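User: Predict the structure for this protein chain, please.
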Amino acid sequence: MVVSLYVCTTCRAGEAPVEGAPCAGTRLHAALCARGAPEGVRIAPVECLSACSQGCAVALAAPGRWAYVYGRMDPAADTEAILNGAAAYAAAPDGLVPWRARPAIFRKQSLARIPPLEG
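Assistant: Here is the predicted structure, written as structure tokens:
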């Protein structure tokens, strides 16, 4: 099963908008796509994750699994950790990655954990 790594492409991460320049969320999405998705993960842009005061934000979700929203991601420094966390999430059948197996940014910068939808 493929899991989704959603990346908010409208996050400004506290930056003032600059005419013609991509915002922080767009830069994060581009950096993740440039590195490539781990096996079993698809990277998908979304226009808003409603974590504006905590941007840049990403979310991990898949049917039948816990979903997570993470914030305060750095487009220049956190791509490897985000992709490692997404790979660990893809390998966890229920989406619950053991605490110590999560990248530090996922342990410290979690904004929400959402239970699986019931069918």
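The chain has one domain: 3-114.
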